[in-house]
Amino acid sequence: MLSGLLIILIPLFIGYLIPLRQTSTITFINRMLSWIVYAILFFMGISLAFLENLNSNLLAILRYSTVSIIVIMAFNTAGLLLLERASPWRHPHRQEKLPSRIAMALESLKLCGVVLAGFALGLSGMAWLRHATAASEYTLIFLLFLIGIQLRSSGMNVRQILLNRRGTQIALVVVATSLLAGAVNAVLLGLPLKTGLAMASGYGWYSLSGILMTESYGPVIGSATFFNDLLRELLAIMLIPSLAQRSRCAALGLCGATSMDFTLPVLQRSGGVDMVPPAIVHGFLLSLVVPLLMALFA
To answer: Which strand (E) or helix (H) includes residue 26?
Structure first.
Protein backbone atom coordinates (compact mmCIF):
# COMPACT_ATOMS: atom_id res chain seq x y z
CA MET A 1 0.00 0.00 0.00
CA LEU A 2 2.81 2.41 0.95
CA SER A 3 4.70 1.85 -2.29
CA GLY A 4 1.52 2.38 -4.34
CA LEU A 5 0.76 5.57 -2.42
CA LEU A 6 4.28 6.88 -2.99
CA ILE A 7 4.14 6.13 -6.73
CA ILE A 8 1.08 8.38 -6.90
CA LEU A 9 2.10 11.07 -4.42
CA ILE A 10 5.71 11.65 -5.49
CA PRO A 11 5.01 12.69 -9.12
CA LEU A 12 1.96 14.69 -7.95
CA PHE A 13 4.03 16.48 -5.30
CA ILE A 14 6.95 17.19 -7.63
CA GLY A 15 4.56 18.59 -10.23
CA TYR A 16 2.79 20.74 -7.62
CA LEU A 17 6.15 22.28 -6.62
CA ILE A 18 6.60 23.71 -10.11
CA PRO A 19 5.00 27.19 -10.35
CA LEU A 20 3.99 28.16 -13.86
CA ARG A 21 2.78 31.60 -14.88
CA GLN A 22 3.06 31.48 -18.67
CA THR A 23 -0.40 30.99 -20.16
CA SER A 24 1.03 29.36 -23.28
CA THR A 25 2.90 26.73 -21.23
CA ILE A 26 -0.17 25.94 -19.11
CA THR A 27 -2.27 25.61 -22.28
CA PHE A 28 0.33 23.27 -23.77
CA ILE A 29 0.31 21.10 -20.61
CA ASN A 30 -3.50 20.92 -20.64
CA ARG A 31 -3.40 19.83 -24.27
CA MET A 32 -0.67 17.29 -23.51
CA LEU A 33 -2.76 15.87 -20.65
CA SER A 34 -5.59 15.18 -23.07
CA TRP A 35 -3.31 13.30 -25.46
CA ILE A 36 -1.72 11.29 -22.63
CA VAL A 37 -5.14 10.28 -21.35
CA TYR A 38 -6.03 9.06 -24.84
CA ALA A 39 -2.78 7.08 -24.97
CA ILE A 40 -3.32 5.39 -21.61
CA LEU A 41 -6.93 4.53 -22.41
CA PHE A 42 -5.73 3.07 -25.71
CA PHE A 43 -3.27 0.89 -23.78
CA MET A 44 -6.12 -0.13 -21.46
CA GLY A 45 -8.15 -1.31 -24.44
CA ILE A 46 -5.21 -3.37 -25.69
CA SER A 47 -4.74 -5.00 -22.27
CA LEU A 48 -8.45 -5.80 -22.16
CA ALA A 49 -8.18 -7.73 -25.43
CA PHE A 50 -5.53 -10.07 -23.94
CA LEU A 51 -7.82 -11.21 -21.10
CA GLU A 52 -8.57 -14.89 -20.77
CA ASN A 53 -12.26 -15.86 -20.98
CA LEU A 54 -12.93 -12.60 -22.78
CA ASN A 55 -16.71 -13.00 -23.25
CA SER A 56 -17.42 -13.65 -19.56
CA ASN A 57 -15.10 -10.80 -18.56
CA LEU A 58 -16.96 -8.32 -20.77
CA LEU A 59 -20.23 -9.33 -19.12
CA ALA A 60 -18.58 -8.82 -15.73
CA ILE A 61 -17.49 -5.30 -16.72
CA LEU A 62 -21.05 -4.44 -17.78
CA ARG A 63 -22.49 -5.84 -14.55
CA TYR A 64 -19.95 -4.16 -12.26
CA SER A 65 -20.24 -0.73 -13.88
CA THR A 66 -24.06 -0.75 -14.12
CA VAL A 67 -24.70 -1.79 -10.53
CA SER A 68 -21.95 0.48 -9.22
CA ILE A 69 -23.16 3.69 -10.86
CA ILE A 70 -26.81 3.11 -9.86
CA VAL A 71 -25.95 2.56 -6.19
CA ILE A 72 -23.38 5.40 -6.00
CA MET A 73 -25.68 7.96 -7.64
CA ALA A 74 -28.59 6.93 -5.40
CA PHE A 75 -26.52 7.29 -2.20
CA ASN A 76 -24.97 10.59 -3.38
CA THR A 77 -28.37 12.05 -4.25
CA ALA A 78 -29.92 11.04 -0.92
CA GLY A 79 -27.07 12.57 1.07
CA LEU A 80 -27.02 15.78 -0.96
CA LEU A 81 -30.79 16.25 -0.68
CA LEU A 82 -30.47 15.91 3.09
CA LEU A 83 -27.71 18.54 3.04
CA GLU A 84 -29.92 20.87 0.99
CA ARG A 85 -32.75 20.44 3.50
CA ALA A 86 -30.47 21.09 6.49
CA SER A 87 -28.72 24.04 4.86
CA PRO A 88 -30.74 25.47 1.93
CA TRP A 89 -28.91 27.22 -0.89
CA ARG A 90 -30.16 30.78 -0.96
CA HIS A 91 -30.41 33.29 -3.83
CA PRO A 92 -32.58 31.53 -6.43
CA HIS A 93 -31.29 31.77 -10.00
CA ARG A 94 -32.99 31.86 -13.38
CA GLN A 95 -31.26 29.53 -15.84
CA GLU A 96 -29.27 30.99 -18.70
CA LYS A 97 -28.99 29.44 -22.14
CA LEU A 98 -27.15 26.15 -21.70
CA PRO A 99 -24.25 24.84 -23.80
CA SER A 100 -25.09 21.88 -26.00
CA ARG A 101 -25.36 18.91 -23.68
CA ILE A 102 -25.34 16.54 -26.67
CA ALA A 103 -22.01 17.97 -27.85
CA MET A 104 -20.55 17.63 -24.35
CA ALA A 105 -21.80 14.05 -24.07
CA LEU A 106 -20.29 13.18 -27.46
CA GLU A 107 -16.97 14.65 -26.30
CA SER A 108 -17.00 12.25 -23.35
CA LEU A 109 -17.98 9.30 -25.53
CA LYS A 110 -14.89 9.86 -27.68
CA LEU A 111 -12.90 8.35 -24.82
CA CYS A 112 -14.96 5.16 -25.10
CA GLY A 113 -14.02 5.08 -28.77
CA VAL A 114 -10.32 5.22 -27.86
CA VAL A 115 -10.69 2.23 -25.52
CA LEU A 116 -12.58 0.32 -28.21
CA ALA A 117 -9.90 1.15 -30.79
CA GLY A 118 -7.20 -0.24 -28.49
CA PHE A 119 -9.35 -3.31 -27.85
CA ALA A 120 -9.77 -3.90 -31.59
CA LEU A 121 -6.01 -3.65 -32.15
CA GLY A 122 -5.35 -5.98 -29.21
CA LEU A 123 -7.58 -8.63 -30.78
CA SER A 124 -4.96 -8.98 -33.53
CA GLY A 125 -2.82 -10.78 -30.94
CA MET A 126 0.51 -9.27 -32.06
CA ALA A 127 3.19 -10.18 -29.49
CA TRP A 128 4.59 -6.66 -29.05
CA LEU A 129 1.20 -5.42 -27.87
CA ARG A 130 1.70 -7.36 -24.62
CA HIS A 131 3.99 -4.51 -23.52
CA ALA A 132 0.94 -2.20 -23.35
CA THR A 133 0.52 -2.72 -19.58
CA ALA A 134 4.13 -1.69 -18.82
CA ALA A 135 3.82 1.29 -21.18
CA SER A 136 0.69 2.47 -19.39
CA GLU A 137 2.48 2.33 -16.00
CA TYR A 138 5.26 4.71 -17.09
CA THR A 139 2.81 6.97 -18.91
CA LEU A 140 0.68 7.11 -15.77
CA ILE A 141 3.60 8.42 -13.69
CA PHE A 142 4.15 11.21 -16.23
CA LEU A 143 0.41 11.93 -16.24
CA LEU A 144 0.38 12.37 -12.46
CA PHE A 145 3.36 14.73 -12.68
CA LEU A 146 1.48 16.93 -15.17
CA ILE A 147 -1.68 16.80 -13.03
CA GLY A 148 0.38 18.16 -10.12
CA ILE A 149 1.48 21.09 -12.28
CA GLN A 150 -2.12 21.64 -13.38
CA LEU A 151 -3.41 21.70 -9.79
CA ARG A 152 -0.76 24.29 -8.85
CA SER A 153 -1.57 26.47 -11.85
CA SER A 154 -5.31 26.41 -10.98
CA GLY A 155 -4.53 29.11 -8.41
CA MET A 156 -6.29 27.40 -5.51
CA ASN A 157 -4.59 27.60 -2.12
CA VAL A 158 -5.37 26.11 1.30
CA ARG A 159 -6.94 29.36 2.55
CA GLN A 160 -9.38 29.53 -0.35
CA ILE A 161 -10.35 25.89 0.10
CA LEU A 162 -10.97 26.14 3.83
CA LEU A 163 -12.97 29.38 3.55
CA ASN A 164 -15.55 27.99 1.10
CA ARG A 165 -17.83 26.15 3.47
CA ARG A 166 -20.45 25.11 0.89
CA GLY A 167 -18.02 23.49 -1.52
CA THR A 168 -16.25 21.67 1.32
CA GLN A 169 -19.55 20.42 2.80
CA ILE A 170 -20.73 19.01 -0.53
CA ALA A 171 -17.37 17.33 -1.15
CA LEU A 172 -17.48 15.67 2.29
CA VAL A 173 -21.03 14.40 1.68
CA VAL A 174 -20.03 13.02 -1.73
CA VAL A 175 -16.98 11.24 -0.28
CA ALA A 176 -18.93 9.77 2.66
CA THR A 177 -21.96 8.58 0.65
CA SER A 178 -19.76 7.20 -2.16
CA LEU A 179 -17.75 5.11 0.29
CA LEU A 180 -20.97 3.84 1.85
CA ALA A 181 -22.23 2.96 -1.64
CA GLY A 182 -18.90 1.25 -2.37
CA ALA A 183 -19.37 -1.00 0.66
CA VAL A 184 -22.90 -1.88 -0.53
CA ASN A 185 -21.57 -2.57 -4.05
CA ALA A 186 -18.95 -4.93 -2.64
CA VAL A 187 -21.76 -6.99 -1.05
CA LEU A 188 -24.04 -6.87 -4.10
CA LEU A 189 -21.27 -7.75 -6.57
CA GLY A 190 -19.43 -10.25 -4.39
CA LEU A 191 -16.22 -8.21 -4.40
CA PRO A 192 -13.72 -7.63 -1.58
CA LEU A 193 -14.59 -4.56 0.50
CA LYS A 194 -11.42 -2.73 -0.55
CA THR A 195 -12.27 -3.26 -4.23
CA GLY A 196 -15.77 -1.86 -3.77
CA LEU A 197 -14.44 1.17 -1.89
CA ALA A 198 -11.75 1.81 -4.51
CA MET A 199 -14.27 1.62 -7.37
CA ALA A 200 -16.45 4.19 -5.58
CA SER A 201 -13.54 6.62 -5.10
CA GLY A 202 -13.25 7.89 -8.68
CA TYR A 203 -15.90 10.65 -8.32
CA GLY A 204 -16.27 10.95 -12.08
CA TRP A 205 -12.55 11.35 -12.84
CA TYR A 206 -12.66 8.46 -15.31
CA SER A 207 -9.43 9.35 -17.10
CA LEU A 208 -7.48 8.72 -13.90
CA SER A 209 -9.60 6.27 -11.89
CA GLY A 210 -9.81 3.69 -14.68
CA ILE A 211 -6.06 3.83 -15.16
CA LEU A 212 -5.23 3.51 -11.46
CA MET A 213 -7.67 0.64 -10.99
CA THR A 214 -6.30 -1.19 -14.02
CA GLU A 215 -2.81 -0.98 -12.53
CA SER A 216 -4.06 -2.28 -9.16
CA TYR A 217 -6.81 -4.77 -10.01
CA GLY A 218 -6.42 -5.58 -13.70
CA PRO A 219 -8.33 -4.55 -16.84
CA VAL A 220 -11.73 -5.96 -15.79
CA ILE A 221 -12.10 -3.85 -12.62
CA GLY A 222 -10.22 -0.97 -14.27
CA SER A 223 -12.57 -0.91 -17.26
CA ALA A 224 -15.64 -1.22 -15.02
CA THR A 225 -14.42 1.75 -12.97
CA PHE A 226 -13.74 3.77 -16.11
CA PHE A 227 -17.25 3.22 -17.49
CA ASN A 228 -18.77 3.80 -14.03
CA ASP A 229 -17.13 7.24 -13.75
CA LEU A 230 -17.79 8.11 -17.40
CA LEU A 231 -21.49 7.36 -16.88
CA ARG A 232 -21.43 9.63 -13.82
CA GLU A 233 -20.27 12.56 -15.93
CA LEU A 234 -22.77 11.86 -18.71
CA LEU A 235 -25.66 11.56 -16.25
CA ALA A 236 -24.57 14.75 -14.46
CA ILE A 237 -24.59 16.70 -17.74
CA MET A 238 -28.14 15.55 -18.44
CA LEU A 239 -29.48 16.02 -14.90
CA ILE A 240 -27.90 19.36 -13.85
CA PRO A 241 -30.49 21.70 -15.44
CA SER A 242 -33.49 20.03 -13.78
CA LEU A 243 -31.70 19.29 -10.49
CA ALA A 244 -30.45 22.87 -10.14
CA GLN A 245 -34.05 24.07 -9.81
CA ARG A 246 -34.75 21.68 -6.92
CA SER A 247 -31.40 21.17 -5.18
CA ARG A 248 -28.24 22.95 -6.19
CA CYS A 249 -26.31 20.79 -3.70
CA ALA A 250 -27.37 17.68 -5.62
CA ALA A 251 -26.67 19.30 -9.00
CA LEU A 252 -23.14 20.19 -7.90
CA GLY A 253 -22.35 17.02 -5.95
CA LEU A 254 -23.30 14.61 -8.73
CA CYS A 255 -20.67 16.23 -10.97
CA GLY A 256 -17.90 14.91 -8.75
CA ALA A 257 -14.38 15.99 -9.61
CA THR A 258 -15.51 17.41 -12.98
CA SER A 259 -17.28 20.35 -11.31
CA MET A 260 -14.16 22.52 -11.59
CA ASP A 261 -13.69 21.98 -15.32
CA PHE A 262 -15.90 20.00 -17.72
CA THR A 263 -19.32 20.47 -16.07
CA LEU A 264 -18.59 23.95 -14.68
CA PRO A 265 -20.23 25.86 -17.60
CA VAL A 266 -23.46 23.87 -17.20
CA LEU A 267 -23.45 24.43 -13.43
CA GLN A 268 -22.91 28.17 -13.82
CA ARG A 269 -25.69 28.62 -16.36
CA SER A 270 -28.13 26.35 -14.54
CA GLY A 271 -27.49 27.45 -10.95
CA GLY A 272 -25.97 30.92 -11.16
CA VAL A 273 -22.59 32.52 -10.71
CA ASP A 274 -22.64 31.89 -6.96
CA MET A 275 -22.21 28.19 -7.77
CA VAL A 276 -18.80 28.77 -9.34
CA PRO A 277 -16.60 29.13 -6.20
CA PRO A 278 -18.15 26.07 -4.44
CA ALA A 279 -17.92 24.11 -7.69
CA ILE A 280 -14.21 24.87 -8.07
CA VAL A 281 -13.46 24.03 -4.42
CA HIS A 282 -15.60 20.87 -4.57
CA GLY A 283 -13.88 19.66 -7.75
CA PHE A 284 -10.43 20.59 -6.45
CA LEU A 285 -10.91 18.69 -3.18
CA LEU A 286 -12.21 15.58 -4.93
CA SER A 287 -9.36 15.74 -7.44
CA LEU A 288 -6.93 15.62 -4.51
CA VAL A 289 -8.82 12.80 -2.80
CA VAL A 290 -9.17 10.44 -5.80
CA PRO A 291 -5.53 9.28 -6.08
CA LEU A 292 -5.11 9.17 -2.30
CA LEU A 293 -8.17 6.98 -1.63
CA MET A 294 -7.51 4.71 -4.58
CA ALA A 295 -3.94 4.15 -3.48
CA LEU A 296 -5.16 3.49 0.07
CA PHE A 297 -7.77 0.91 -0.96
CA ALA A 298 -5.65 -0.64 -3.71
So the answer is: helix 23-49
